[in-house]
Amino acid sequence: MTSTRRTVLAATAFAATLALSPAFAQAPIEIELFFPVPVDGQLARDMTTMVKEFNEKHPAIKATPVYTGSYDETLIKTRAAMKAGKPPAAVIMSANFLLDLKIEGEIQKLDDLIKTDGKTNDAFMGQFFKALHGNAVLDRSVYGVPFHNSTPLLYVNADHFREAGLDPDKLPTNWEELAAAAKKLTKREGDRVTRWGVMAPSNYDYGGWILQALTHSNGGQWFNPEFGGEVYYDTPSMLGALTFWSDLVAKHKVHPAGVQAGGAVSSAFLAGQASMMLLSTGSLTHIRTNAKFPYKVAFVPRNVRNEVPIGGASLVIPTGVEDARKKAAWTLITWMTNPEKSGWWSRATGYLAPNMAAYDLPEMKAFIEKNPDAGIAVKQLDVAKPWFATYKTVTVRKAIEDELQAVLSGKKQPKEALVAAQKNADEIMKPFVEQTALKLPTN
Amino acid sequence: MSGSGIATGEFSPKLGYGATLAIACLWMTPFVWMLVAAFNPQSIGAGMASLIPDYVPTLANFREAWASADFPRYGLNTVIITLGILAVQLVTITLAGYAFARLEFPGRTLCFYLFLLQLMLAPVVLIVPNLTTIAKLGLYDTLLGVMAPYFASAFGAFLMRQAFRAIPRELEDAALIDGASVLQRIRLIYLPLAKPSLIAFSIVSVTAHWNEFLWPLMVINSPDLRPLTVGLASFTRGAEGAQAWGVIAAGTLMVSAPLLIAFALFQRAFVNSFVSSGIK
Questions:
Q1: B131 touches chain A (CB under 8 A)
Q2: What is the CATH number of the domain that holds B95?
Q3: How far is CA A189 from the centre of its chain?
Q4: φ, ψ of residue A74 in degrees (nearest 5)
Q5: pLDDT given at position B44
Q6: Per the count of CB atoms within 10 A, which of A243, A301, A366, B54 is most buried?
């Protein structure tokens, strides 16, 4: 009895698939999605779950999620695979690498795909927060679709605040208040510090981003968002930002000296060894799950104005991916960035959902109601600006990060560090500048 | 050299032991921390930095690490890669070592130095050209593709050449008179006498490829073909997030344990071969 029923069911199911998708008879189109794991390991599993669901709903496509290391390693692997003639169909790429990839001709314009869907570029990008456009739309063409995004946030241990006589409902809004609170929060036993007032990460990739947040909060710009050959390292706004960070270490002694990695900062915060920290919204879920004390989040404190850079990653299609594979990649990309999936991924990771409609869905509303900290992260997007992106972003970024690390280790003064960083960065961007802004008529 | 060293001609044994012990402690610290952290029930917190366990040990970290990645499959892939590379290498370095040590042919020295030049290249420089070759051979995203670039080893060929040259030629001549072919002479005369070098090279090769991360990350796309290092990294290397130290420590312990156990079992043989082959 059961076996006959099962046979009938199977036959019906088989007939249904045949009828619904004539393409099913052919082998599905195989595509790869390169993805870095920027947050914690659970995400590698979440990504696998997500792609599996996509494959079930799209029988004509078989997508494979390929773990590709950090953001920087993902860039190396993508470039190596392209040179070997095996470009992946889609890549989750650090949002500030897009400009350099575009300059090198390594990623495709998505305009024609958007047009085929019956949309204009403006209408398509209109679904995403305005702050995210700068790193995705280059020369009026769409090169990337925002997948998950972040901004730096101020995290505060509310218990420590109360204990130090500070009001956890009135978090520091400017640098003055931040330094004053940090001084009150720092605990010492003789010369030894047992609790730091504030910590911020200064390892590669992270350090540059936090320094950009401080620079923007100080009225600065860091780079020319319209032209990939200019950075403003040796400027008063940057000098103020770097000096402030360096003062927290050397003058106020409320921030540990030397290079602090992102993981070490959040571990110190969770362990109660740091009372405040500047860290990505991408860590929100991790902090929420692991903090054994009440915590609060706020905008990054300002000196001149409230402004921070965005972070995170976009989906891109490398050059050389054509026809059916390109179309399949586009199906995957639009599916992964739809409001529902965008919201699901955001709740799983703590990253912001780039698709604004995600925040109108009932499950997202309920989530923010329950976790108001996630709502503050979204509000900060209103004052967010593009992440620095130049010709050879990674090396130009390292030029300042090496100097930042030297300053925080007490080996250099802020001014001389910025002069050196500017000189190095200009040197790196020289070939590009000579081919663009300085390429003049000779006769 | 200290004054007492010159006077007695050598360091006093006590001082030597003391220094060894101090260095051993320094080297052991990260390992001890990993052990302590791996069994710590609290993955984050003030106790994590401690080297002395102050908790009831738990296997929860191991359970979570085990669930985070398909360790048996990744382990099998790593074993296939390391042993596959080693098997081919042992053949190629023996033949190359013999050729450089004993065969007379024009341009031998030049060839040998060209071969050694390979040691000077940083492996990262070769990623793109190697990957291009691998793709052309149809080995992209295969375990063979991970292994292929390592089938020849300049270091191994050099090591075997030195070992073979130290073996008296008279032994080979005697075998020649008895009618032994080239391969027989290598197998029966040279290889048994060069065993320490072979073992020493095997250890270096196995550890290097067991721990390799970047090259397999470049070649492999399919989740089923990941080696341990890449599988481990997928849940331990968070750029923007914080890290669950206990789980990382447990995962790292699981990845490094097979090598550690192997070393503990064959310790004496390993140390002897390192001493007699001159690698330190």
A1: yes
A2: 1.10.3720.10
A3: 38
A4: -60, -40
A5: 58
A6: A301
Domain around B132:
73-227+262-279
Residue B239 lies in a domain: no
Residue B53's pLDDT band, with cuts at 50, 70 and 90, is confident
A205 touches chain B (CB under 8 A): yes
pLDDT band at B255 (very low <50, low <70, confident <90, very high): confident
Cα atoms in the Cβ-side hemisphere of radius 13 Å centred on A104:
17
> B140 to chain A nearest CA, in Å?
8
B35 in a structural domain: no
Domains of chain A by range and CATH? 24-149+312-385 (3.40.190.10), 152-310+391-436 (3.40.190.10)
Residues of A in contact with B242 (CB under 8 A): 40, 262-263, 265-267, 270, 283, 286-287, 290
Q: Using CB atoms, which residue from B44, B134, B217 is nearest to A271?
A: B44
- Walk along chain A (443 residues) in steps of 10 and give the mean pLDDT of each run: 50 48 66 79 78 95 90 90 93 95 95 95 95 94 95 96 95 97 94 92 93 97 93 97 97 94 87 93 85 94 96 95 94 96 89 94 95 91 95 95 96 97 97 94 84
Mean pLDDT on B27-49: 77
Is A315 in contact with A132 (CB distance < 8 Å)? no
* Whether B44 contacts chain A with CB within 8 A: yes
Within a domain: residue B138?
yes
Please give, rounded to a whole number of angstroms, the shortest distance from the CA of B222 to a CA of chain A.
Answer: 7
Number of domains in chain B: 1
C-alpha pair distances (Å), B135 with each of A176, A330, B128? 58, 25, 10
Q: Is B240 on the interface with A (CB under 8 A)?
A: yes
